Amino acid sequence: MSGTIDLGPANPRISPLIKLSRWTLLVGGIFWGAHRYRVNKEAEDAHRAYVSRMQPIWDAEAAVKKAKATREELIYLAKETQTPIPPNF
């Protein structure tokens, strides 16, 4: 026994109402998908433009934070190892 169920041949006579409903829903879904794509594309394009304008600013802020953290860490290490800190550091 293979464990499959024999359902018999497919029904050759499908109601025209069911066929019309299937095609209508398919075409409607295609149009709805195209509409949603356009709406989402506009929003995504606006977001990408914002990110491309802001990315250099965010990178500069991150670099300043990183430089400050690095300086503080080096000062801490110098104090822990009793290394003199240069006056212009």
UniProtKB/TrEMBL annotation:
Single GO term (MF): proton transmembrane transporter activity
Key words, A-Z: Acetylation, ATP synthesis, CF(0), Hydrogen ion transport, Ion transport, Membrane, Mitochondrion, Mitochondrion inner membrane, Transport
Keyword Secreted carried by entry: no
Major location (coarse): mitochondrion
GO biological process terms on file: proton motive force-driven ATP synthesis
Domain of life: Eukaryota
Places the protein is found: Mitochondrion inner membrane
PANTHER family: ATP SYNTHASE E CHAIN, MITOCHONDRIAL, ATP SYNTHASE SUBUNIT E, MITOCHONDRIAL
Protein name: ATP synthase F(0) complex subunit e, mitochondrial
Source organism of this protein record: Tigriopus californicus
